[in-house]
Design the sequence.
């Protein structure tokens, strides 16, 4: 193709996806099902519908439909901030002196500041459609809570967020963004729930964990008339909604006849990576094309690269279904010096299964190397990346530097999931050279994994 | 025109402006010239070139060329974040139940988070081209300093920012963004300059002011080999660069055959408003079209609506040229409870002259009303607006509500200059009902104006 590639490839409104892509439909060996924590039997639609909105429960269980229509109301909302640009990183390429072509799909161009909004709006829509009064959720660093509060505001739904206490205190701005959009934000563990009261009693002064906040949010959802629980990652429904990222990316590349060689995404619970790679892995599963796909996780929370592929608890209170996933054990808590997101102990069961089938690779990186890449990227590309996203930047730069050695003009595509405006303490630590790395020992991981359910 | 109007009107790369528009060329009565503070004679190119980059000094004095080419390097940088979208505020219209069509030009889609980058990159470019080592500047709330640090990073120029001390301490995140982009940030008044040492001696414990930070930055620029001073608003060169906002806005409206009825922008020093309205006021000056144009300023710093049109000092140290402008007096400092930007005591001489010729209107609004509009806008349109921008939102909503009464389907266009991520303390104060309003008394303004130079 001789068509000159612009800095940003935008799709026209009419080129935007009208259907999400459900990668499970093309998987011969499906991801392992969610299990009832009491009976160890696969969760039924009825059981799931007690916790989740009914339509979302259906999506969670749907392994057969490759395409699921995006309701018009959601498409209209998407139009407010989508299509997101696929950016050719000309400046970064020049700075690195690499023959590689680097592209990034930028999902930070909305107030939530991250890709999380893509699923938040879908989940809020289905809650509204079901006639619910509101939803509950947890948030750690705050990206998901921010996105959900925006989505609920749009549909006039009540939104109760349980925010890990240390983040609630250390990230007051995130909290205030959620309040501005009308959400109630409660530090977790709180005194409002049984699990919260128990945690506060058992561990006085605890600053909370994501697993505990999940348990609190679920407890409130199932015990409050007209409420359901929603989650921003890990679940297959979330990866389904996030497929809009990958579908747009592929459409934009196709528009200019570009064939990706390497696709790179950061991976915590898997929402971004699962969405970004969806249509590409679909081609791979159908034998239509091949791509190198790399999941990048923090060395401090390395579920794919150092975890075990077993059934595990999803939360501290053990009220959620069990999921088979690459996991570090539900009691694993990344070192407090770990600066940004990607802190969940497990990985989406879809991605776990794809990884187990060796359809995707995984690598882990340390945070000082991540922030080095973040700063370098910001200075040439202008965008201040979220620490989460910067994991992908690190590996994209490394791959581009390999191309410099070999002289290969590979097409490297990575997901830039969001912006780092609320992570300036971490950037300051990097600038001040006070940031440190921490890699958990094998013993730590083994001790945490030992508490996984045995069956 | 029957063409359906999308949520966001994007221009193609080739539709982007290749020239800035210099509104002074079409003004029969020109803005009053900058004067040498010693001789009271118009500043010469030579004098201006001691403070500013030579090419920028030329632009400052250029009243004859209607169009000035945007150098290719700057256009290439613009392509990284421009064209910015012109958004049809469908959701806001629906919420208000107005027949009006509301459009906003969103300039917050870059890491600086505001329109300031449009001029920052131009100024950095000319500094680099002149072979300078670096530039100095001041920043208050931090939007300009952030933008300039990005621009300098791109061109590998040193960037010294004097940041008003209270902002330096209260807005550590802004400071860290600038450091991430490689700028040095010094709280003002500092002990590094004569004026800084004098202010610290005369007013022990002072938390600084914009006027003092300007004086410090100018002092360092003129006394350091290879440095010049740059400014983010007020100057005619800045309005010239910001005309890219208005040119894109007009091109996008024209593309869909939309004729604006009312154009609204917030006004501090005038950089955004002057840029947004440039091509429209040009048509007005040439008698080709008519528009209502409204400048919105804070009731706590009302230079157009309550100031006098006289020559005044631009800085505390009185080292800068004198400018004829609507001013509250250079010693005027808005109440400390004023939350967001737009704190400069004077107004761009171009806008002052247009206002004096009654080609634009002005109004002032109180901050609680501004944050009410900001919150309402965020909840339906998704974007979290900067307090500055929200002044324009307030008046756009008021105009749309008038249309609801009259049944008129007016086209209302306003400038959404940036995002409010770094203003969450103010949003929190609004949410907590602790935000208050303050309107200066006539006596306060008169006392400050009494110190303006007499001649």
Sequence:
């Amino acid at each position: 193709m001789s068509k000159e590639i612009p800095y940003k490839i935008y799709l026209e409104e009419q080129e935007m996806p009208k259907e999400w892509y459900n990668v499970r439909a093309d998987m011969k060996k499906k991801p392992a099902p969610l299990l009832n924590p009491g009976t160890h039997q696969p969760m039924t639609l009825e059981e799931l519908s007690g916790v989740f909105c009914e339509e979302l429960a259906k999506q969670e269980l749907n392994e057969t439909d490759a395409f699921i229509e995006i309701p018009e109301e959601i498409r209209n909302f998407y139009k407010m901030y989508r299509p997101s640009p696929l950016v050719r990183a000309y400046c970064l390429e020049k700075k690195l002196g690499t023959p590689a072509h680097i592209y990034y799909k930028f999902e930070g161009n909305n107030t939530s500041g991250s890709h999380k909004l893509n699923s938040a709006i879908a989940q809020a829509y289905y809650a509204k459609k079901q006639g619910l009064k509101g939803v509950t959720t947890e948030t750690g660093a705050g990206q998901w809570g921010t996105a959900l509060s925006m989505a609920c505001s749009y549909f006039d739904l009540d939104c109760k967020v349980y925010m890990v206490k240390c983040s609630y205190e250390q990230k007051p701005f995130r909290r205030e963004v959620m309040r501005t959009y009308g959400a109630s934000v409660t530090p977790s563990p709180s005194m409002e729930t049984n699990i919260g009261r128990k945690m506060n009693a058992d561990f006085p002064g605890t600053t909370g964990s994501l697993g505990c906040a999940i348990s609190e949010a679920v407890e409130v959802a199932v015990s409050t008339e007209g409420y359901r629980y929603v989650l921003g990652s890990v679940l297959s429904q979330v990866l389904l909604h996030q497929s809009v990222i990958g579908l747009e990316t592929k459409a934009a590349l196709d528009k200019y006849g570009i064939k990706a060689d390497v696709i790179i995404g950061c991976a915590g619970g898997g929402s971004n990576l699962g969405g970004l790679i969806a249509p590409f892995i679909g081609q791979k599963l159908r034998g239509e094309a091949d791509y190198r796909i790399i999941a990048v996780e923090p060395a401090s929370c390395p579920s794919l690269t150092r975890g075990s592929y077993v059934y595990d608890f999803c939360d501290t209170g053990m009220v959620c279904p069990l999921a088979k996933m690459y996991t570090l054990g539900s009691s694993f808590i990344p070192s407090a010096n770990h600066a940004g997101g990607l802190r969940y102990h497990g990985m989406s069961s879809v991605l776990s299964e794809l990884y187990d089938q060796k359809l995707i690779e995984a690598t882990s990186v340390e945070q000082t190397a991540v922030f080095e890449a973040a700063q370098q990227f910001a200075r040439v590309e202008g965008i201040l990346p979220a620490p989460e996203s910067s994991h992908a930047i690190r590996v994209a730069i490394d791959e581009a530097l390999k191309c410099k050695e070999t002289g290969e003009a590979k097409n490297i595509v990575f997901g830039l999931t969001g912006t780092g405006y609320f992570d300036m303490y971490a950037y300051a630590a990097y600038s001040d050279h006070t940031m440190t790395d921490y890699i958990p020992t094998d013993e730590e991981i083994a001790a945490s994994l030992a508490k996984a359910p045995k069956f």
In short: The first helix of chain A runs from residue 45 to 51. Chain A has two domains: 8-15+72-113+236-449, 19-69+116-229.
